Amino acid sequence: MREAPPFRRYNLIYGFNGSGKTTLSRVFASVERGALSAYLPEDGRYELTLSDGSKISPGTTDGLRDRIVVLNVDFIEQNLRWKDGVANPVFYLGEEQANLAEKLEKIEGELEQLRPQHGEAERASERADSSFTIHKRDAARTVTEWLGLGRTYNASNLIADYANRPYDTADQLSEEQRQQARNTINQSTPLPKREPLGALDFSLAEITSEASTLLQQTLGTITVNDLRDYPEMMKWVGDGLTYHRDHKLTNCLFCGNKIDEDRFETLASAIDARYERLVEDVVKLRLRAESLRERISETRAALPSDNDISAEFRSDFRNAAEVVRKTLSTGDTQVQTILTELNQKAATPNVAGETDNLIAAEAAKEWDEALSRNAAVIDEVIARHNNSHDEFARIQEEARTKLKGHFLAMGQEQYDELAAEATGAKNAVDALANKIKELGDNTEELRRQLREHGGAAGMINRLVRSYLGHGELELGTLDEGYELRRNGRTITGSLSEGEKTALAICYFLATLEAEGRKRKDLVIVIDDPISSLDTKALNYAFSIIKAAVSEAAQVIILTHNLHFMNEAKKWLKPKTEKVAGADKATASLMFLDTVQPDGADTRRTSIKEMPRHIREYESEYQYLFHLTLRFLETPDGAGYFYVMPNALRKILDVFLAFKVPGSAGLSSKIEKVAKDPGEDVDQGRILALDRLVQLESHADNLDDLVAQSSMTVEETTDAANALLAVMEALDKPHVDQMRRVCRVQ
Question: Is the whole model's pTM more than 0.85, yes or no?
Answer without folding.
Answer: no
